[in-house]
Amino acid sequence: MxxxxxxxxISIIIAIGFFIAFITAVKTGQYDDDYxxxxxxxxxxxxxxxxxKVTQLEEIEEKEQDK
Amino acid sequence: MDTQNCFHCGLDIIKxxxxxxxxxSFCCNGCKTVYEIFSLNDMSCYYDFEKSPGATxxxxxxxxDFLDNESIVSKLLEFEENSTAIISLNIPHIHCSSCIWILExxxxxxxxxxxxxxxxxxKKVRITYNPEIVTIKSIVYLxxxxxxxxxxxxxxxxxxDNKVDRTLTYKLGVAFFCFGNVMLLSFPEYFEVKxxxxxxxxxxxxxxxxxxxxxxxxxSASGYYVSxxxxxxxxxxxxxxxxxLGIMVMFVRSAFDIIMDYGSGFFDSLTGLIFFxxxxxxxxxxxxxxxxFERDFKSYFPIAITKIKADSSEESVPIYEVEKGxxxxxxxxxxxxxxxxxxxxxxxxxxxxxxxxxxxIAKKSGDxxxxxxxxxxxxxxxxxxxxxxxxYLTQLWSNDVFQKNxxxxxxxxxxxxSRYFTPILLLIAFSSxxxxxxxxxxxxxxxxxxxxxxxxxxxxxxxxxxxxxNVLRIMGKQxxxxxxxxxxxxxxxxxxxxxxxTGTITTNKKSNISYEGDELSDENLLLIKNVLRASNHPLSRxxxxxxxxxxxxNKSTSNAKKMKVDYFEEIVGKGIKSQIFGYHILIGSxxxxxxxxxxxxxxxxxxxxxxEVYYGKFIFNNQxxxxxxxxxxxxSKQYKIKxxxxxxxxxxxxxxELLPKGTELVFNQKPEQKxxxxxxxxxxGSNVMMVGDGLNDAGALAQSNVGISISENVNVFSPAxxxxxxxxxxxxLNYFLNFSKxxxxxxxxxxALSLLYNVVGLxxxxxxNLLPLVAAIIMxxxxxxxxxxxxxxSSYYSKKK
Lengths: 67, 801
Hints:
The structure holds two protein chains of two kinds.
Chain A: H1 3-27, H2 36-40, H3 44-48, H4 51-66
Chain B: E1 19-21, E2 24-26, H1 29-40, H2 46-49, H3 70-76, E3 77-80, E4 85-90, H4 97-104, E5 113-119, E6 124-129, H5 136-145, H6 167-190, H7 196-220, H8 222-233, H9 240-259, H10 267-285, E7 304-308, E8 314-318, E9 327-330, E10 340-342, E11 346-350, E12 361-364, E13 368-369, E14 374-375, E15 380-384, H11 392-397, H12 400-403, H13 413-436, H14 441-454, H15 458-477, E16 480-482, H16 486-493, E17 496-500, H17 501-505, E18 512-517, H18 522-533, H19 538-546, H20 555-559, E19 565-571, E20 575-580, E21 583-588, E22 604-610, E23 613-621, H21 628-638, E24 640-644, H22 652-658, E25 664-666, H23 671-683, E26 688-692, H24 698-703, E27 706-711, E28 723-726, H25 733-766, H26 772-799
Parallel strand pairs in B: 17-24, 17-26, 24-25, 26-27, 27-28
Antiparallel strand pairs in B: 1-2, 3-4, 4-6, 5-6, 7-8, 7-9, 9-15, 10-13, 10-15, 11-12, 11-14, 16-28, 18-23, 19-20, 20-21, 21-22, 22-23
């Protein structure tokens, strides 16, 4: 049954690992602004938008308007 | 699409100024240009995230010339190396997701910018750029040209590396780590099953828990020990004393239990308690970081000023390097940073920043001009009399009241309760100890510690932070920004409200203009409007905006809407002399048009004379804020109301009619007198709330128990005060006052609730039955009930009108 020593030790080590990850995250300023990243992540698609796509979209819109 | 509003900035479009571009309508050229920049660079999805997110770019010619000066730039930079530099700029306009998107894609608009990152809560953008390719000046120009003009003031000087205080986040992280693991390891103890292997490893579990509780006890909770020690030193019993006492007794008793193998101790409750209390603290602190309340005159002063050197060349110098005898160049709308003597022939100086007077004062060559004034109109030259730190504004700010620590003005509600709580708690602990000592010394020791543990006022300590945190958040959403939680308590205690007149109960923006005299024909109105267009005087601007554009039947005249002014002369302090369309027009003061007027009439007016015929005058009345009358009527039932004004008595009769009877009106008050007035009220035992608009009553705002500043633009104008109220929400003042009162009631109710828990817990403790399991149930349970109770209650009260 002494395996429990091993298991608990492993679990504590993992927990400490996460704890260290948290500390480094705070240290590098990742917790200073907790709003902007939530908005920023939604932009990625817009950035990829090529000029071509825009014109395509406009064409579709124009066609719809013509109808 | 709504054609009434500008596609870019969302403002109403005046029909004849409308510009149609790319099938979208804009209110002005500036907005159109911004749209052009964006669409050329394929960035028009700026308009997809929010509807009309932009701002009209302002004319900034010459304003940022100081950015050519390398020594100033290096003070502004966060980091600088050969090909990389980082700068943080404060941009007040940041308000929506479109702003984030455009500012984070600056590299597509300007070569040399590698990345830019927005900090939305602080309204800042951090730009990394290559100084070899692009200068900071061109970045600022770019930002301004797309409507995101940065706000650079003396405050930004030497902000090199600003350290952020993250201690509380670390403490909270440590506390949570310890709490979670200790809880997990405590589970076997809760189900005291007599199983062989659980008994076998009990010691191991306990010692592990002991070890895990250490960082929480020694690091996370350290703030409470310091605060308790300080309060004992100053002989003021605050809530941190019983908390610190409870934590320490809990730790010693638990350590004792584990070492002597008596039991499992209370480490689970201990770590949980520390975690929840820190969480409450965090909740209260996290409000709105973009408003800085601790501003001083620095944030209003320009960072650099144009100096005229001996060889009459111009140079931008940092404001601290200005010396006596220097010659300075002040442009339109620039703040005069130091006292000095006017060298240019004449100047129009707007002292509303210092005195609250809206009308600019004319100065002649040789007159003294004081720091804090704003030049309106032409560029002027002045000679410096003092260096920056000695001037008038600095003196105003160095008044004693600004040095006073606000915390000491009031005792918090929690602290006043703990004054009774702590002695009673100690009394119960000792008397139960005294009782049990005769029966069983061992039990007596247990009971003594159990009482201190269970009575540890964690619920009590959580009440205020969670209620106030929630209230601060709700009020912030409604554009009433409080400096800290203490202000809520002070708001609830207010019994006298003092209002400043100019800019507070009147708006700065539009004056109510009325006309008196012979009727003016449409042609005449048109002529006047065209003359006024050329003038820069504030009254001219107001009148120009006010005058309707007459619709003329005669088409040829209406085509000449923008008629050419043949002759134009502005005589400072008097009026305008001009010739247009064959008419001689005089617009100006009574003396200027040679009209003899009763000098007792105290009003601001502009007289009109066309072709030697006197027509009449336009009278500028103050425009009072919407809902003022109702607000005063409601307020006067509960509070004593007084109105202070720096202006003359011209408005007395209007005010007396508008305001409820018994409102005291005091006129001709200088800033120092306002301060004195508040002080006298306080000496007679009143709790005074001062509602003012800005710097000129800054002294009074600081002196009062609660100083509220009304601001048209919360980002730019927020002097040292306890709260900032957005001008559009002015009529809600009564609601905010009631809300604060109700939140105090909420706190009192939850105090009662938490004391109830304490009574239950104590009855276990005194009888010697406090098992770790009971403690582990009671403590989190009371915490959770209290937190949810106060949150629900404060949200409920916020909805009540």
